[in-house]
TrEMBL record:
<feature type="transmembrane region" description="Helical">
    <location>
        <begin position="41"/>
        <end position="61"/>
    </location>
</feature>
<dbReference type="Pfam" id="PF03812">
    <property type="entry name" value="KdgT"/>
</dbReference>
<keyword id="KW-0769">Symport</keyword>
<keyword id="KW-0813">Transport</keyword>
<protein>
    <submittedName>
        <fullName>2-keto-3-deoxygluconate permease</fullName>
    </submittedName>
</protein>
<keyword id="KW-1133">Transmembrane helix</keyword>
<dbReference type="GO" id="GO:0015649">
    <property type="term" value="F:2-keto-3-deoxygluconate:proton symporter activity"/>
</dbReference>
<feature type="transmembrane region" description="Helical">
    <location>
        <begin position="73"/>
        <end position="93"/>
    </location>
</feature>
<dbReference type="InterPro" id="IPR004684">
    <property type="entry name" value="2keto-3dGluconate_permease"/>
</dbReference>
<keyword id="KW-0812">Transmembrane</keyword>
<dbReference type="GO" id="GO:0016020">
    <property type="term" value="C:membrane"/>
</dbReference>
<feature type="transmembrane region" description="Helical">
    <location>
        <begin position="105"/>
        <end position="124"/>
    </location>
</feature>
<feature type="transmembrane region" description="Helical">
    <location>
        <begin position="12"/>
        <end position="35"/>
    </location>
</feature>
<keyword id="KW-0762">Sugar transport</keyword>
<keyword id="KW-1003">Cell membrane</keyword>
<keyword id="KW-0472">Membrane</keyword>
Length: 142
């Protein structure tokens, strides 16, 4: 990270490797997901997605607008799940053995929710920016 930020040539060299790294990251995360558990967690996936979109997202946008006095698009990004959230159930299951029976289904649920967030949240962000603005001040003197 330090090298890429300090030297432009190194940044250009490694910038083309991002798609390759993302491919292998996707393979590693996908290999740990049980598709049978994924198909059996249907209603739980809908509830989890509903919680994120209908409960957490409005709370985050409201807090972003009222407390931070920002347009709200950063709240949408903060509400979207990160890729590492798929690994969290496995880590918890390894540290706390009483949760081990729930690891596969929780991992599958997080994976489905993550895929949903990746595809839907850019459109939600576009809607929020269109409705509340982006917060960018434009120079209207020209």
């Amino acid at each position: 990270m330090v090298l890429a930020n300090s030297d432009e040539k190194i940044r250009k060299l490694f910038s083309t490797a991002t798609p390759v790294v993302l491919f292998f990251l996707g393979c590693c995360l996908g290999a740990s997901i049980n598709l049978r558990a994924l198909s059996q967690a249907g209603a739980a996936n809908i509830v989890l997605i509903g919680l994120i979109v209908c409960v957490f997202l409005p709370i985050m946008i409201t807090a972003d607008k009222l407390i931070l006095r920002r347009p709200g698009y950063a709240a949408v990004a903060a509400t979207c799940l990160g890729g590492l959230s798929v690994v969290a159930p496995r880590i918890i299951g390894e540290r706390l053995p009483q949760y081990q029976p729930y690891v596969e289904s929780a991992t599958a649920q997080m994976a489905v929710t993550l895929v949903f967030c990746i595809f839907v949240f850019p459109y939600i962000t576009k809607f929020v920016v269109g409705k509340f603005g982006s917060g960018v001040v434009t120079d209207k003197t020209n």
